[in-house]
Design goal:
The complex is a heterodimer of chains A (132) and B (188). Chain A is of the alpha+beta class and 132 residues long. Helix content of chain A is 23%, strand content 33%. Chain A is built from three helices and eight strands; from the N terminus they run E-E-E-E-H-H-H-E-E-E-E. In chain A, helix 2 crosses helix 3. The two termini of chain A are 23 Å apart. By secondary structure, chain B is of the alpha+beta class. Chain B is built from five helices and four strands. In chain B, strands 2-3-4 form a three-stranded mixed β-sheet. The chains are: A alpha+beta (132), B alpha+beta (188). At the A-B interface, strand 1, strand 2, strand 3, strand 4 and strand 5 of A face strand 1, helix 1, helix 2, strand 2 and strand 3 of B. Strand 1 of chain A pairs antiparallel with strand 1 of chain B.
Chain lengths: 132, 188
C-alpha cells in the first residue's frame, strides 16, 4: 500500500491511498484502502492515509477516528494519531501518515517499521523506515 | 504553520530487511517526497499533489500498488485506491482493477466525473475505458517476483501480509504474531 497526505499554506487538505491488496488474498476481497474512513479520510481538520492489515483498519475505522478525536475530543493531530495507532488498533497491524490544517505532521505505526517520508514549510524533512 | 506533505510505502517492515532491499525504497521515498514538495511550492492544490505523488508511488515496483501490486490466490491482480478532498468532503474510490496503470487517477475521475463515490470490478474497468485512462494487459502486473511470493504464501497456506514470513499453517498464531522476515513491501 502507498499513500500521501498534503496541506497547503491556506490549510486546504487532501488524502490519497492505493494498493495491490494482500498476497494470496481471496478474489473479490476488499481491504481498507478504498473505504473512506478506514484507509483514507480528509476534512477541514486533517488528512489521513493508513496502511496495514485491512480487516483491522476497517473494524477500527482508523482514518476517520483520527479526525473524530480531533473534532470531538479536541486532541492535537499527534495525540489523536498516537491514540488510534497505539491504543485502539491491535499491535502489529497499522501505520498511518497524517497532516493537519495547521501544517503539523504525524506518522505513527505499531508494526516493526513503515516506509515513510514528510516535509514541512519550516524546512523539516524526514525519510525513514524504523524508529531510533 | 504552512504547507506540509507526508507519504508512506507500506507498514510492517522487518528490522531484518537487507540493505539491497532498503536503499532503493528509501531513494524512492525521497524522490516522491521531492515531487510533493515541489508541487506544493508551485501552489498546486493538495488534491492534485496527493494524486501526483501516489501516481509516482504506483509506478515504482518496490511498493505494493500499481506496478508492484501483489497477486490474489488465483494469481490475478486486484488493485484498489481512494482519494478525498478535505474542503468539499468529495471522495472517489475504485476496487478490483486489473488493467488500469494508475488506480488513484481513476478514483479521482470517479470523484470528479460521476455522482458516485465508489466503482468496483467490471464497472470500474468499463469506466476506465470510457474515461480513456491508461490501461495495459493485466500480465504487465504479474511479475516473476510476485508469482514467487504467491507460491511462498500458498505453501504456507496463509495470506502473506507485507513482510510476513511464510509459515506453516499454524491456526494458533494470529496474523500479528507472525514473525516478520525479509521481503519486499507488499503490505495491503
Amino acid at each position: 500500500t502507498v499513500g500521501c497526505v498534503a496541506v497547503d499554506s491556506n490549510g486546504n487538505l487532501a488524502s490519497a491511498t492505493s494498493t495491490g491488496g494482500l498476497v494470496n488474498k481471496m478474489v473479490g476481497r476488499i481491504g481498507d484502502t478504498p473505504l473512506i474512513g478506514a484507509g483514507t479520510y480528509a476534512n477541514e481538520l486533517c488528512a489521513v492515509s493508513a496502511t496495514g492489515i485491512g480487516e483491522a483498519l476497517i473494524r477500527g475505522t482508523v482514518a476517520r477516528d483520527v479526525a473524530a478525536m480531533m473534532e470531538f475530543k479536541g486532541l492535537s493531530l499527534k495525540e489523536a494519531a498516537d491514540c488510534v495507532v497505539h491504543e485502539r488498533i491491535p499491535k502489529g497491524t497499522v501505520g498511518l501518515v497524517a497532516v493537519s490544517a495547521a501544517g503539523e505532521v504525524a506518522m505513527p505505526y505499531n508494526t516493526p517499521g513503515m516506509f515513510r517520508a514528510c516535509a514541512t514549510e519550516d524546512g523539516y524533512s524526514e525519510v525513514a523506515i524504523w524508529s531510533d | 504553520m504552512g504547507w506540509a506533505v507526508a507519504l508512506h510505502g507500506g507498514a510492517g517492515v522487518p528490522f531484518s530487511l537487507p540493505p539491497e532491499a532498503r536503499q532503493p525504497r528509501e531513494e524512492a521515498l525521497r524522490h516522491c517526497l521531492q515531487i510533493g514538495v515541489k508541487a506544493l511550492k508551485s501552489n498546486m492544490s493538495p488534491l492534485d499533489v496527493v494524486e501526483l505523488v501516489v501516481r509516482e508511488l504506483e509506478n515504482i515496483p518496490h511498493f505494493n500498488a500499481g506496478r508492484g501490486s501483489v497477486l490474489t490466490n488465483k494469481g490475478t491482480v486486484e488493485m484498489e485506491a481512494s482519494i478525498m478532498d478535505g474542503n468539499t468532503m468529495k471522495c472517489g474510490a475504485v476496487s478490483g482493477l486489473s488493467t488500469v496503470v494508475n488506480a488513484i487517477s481513476l478514483a479521482r475521475l470517479v470523484m470528479d466525473n460521476t455522482p458516485h463515490i465508489y466503482l468496483a470490478f467490471d464497472g470500474a474497468e468499463d469506466f476506465a475505458r470510457q474515461q480513456g485512462v491508461e490501461t495495459v494487459d493485466t500480465s504487465h502486473f504479474i511479475t516473476p517476483e510476485n508469482i514467487e511470493r504467491l507460491n511462498q504464501a500458498k505453501e504456507a497456506d496463509r495470506v502473506q501480509i507485507d513482510y510476513t514470513q511464510p509459515i506453516q499453517n499454524d491456526t494458533t498464531k494470529s496474523e500479528t504474531e507472525t514473525p516478520f522476515a525479509n521481503g519486499d513491501s507488499q503490505l495491503g
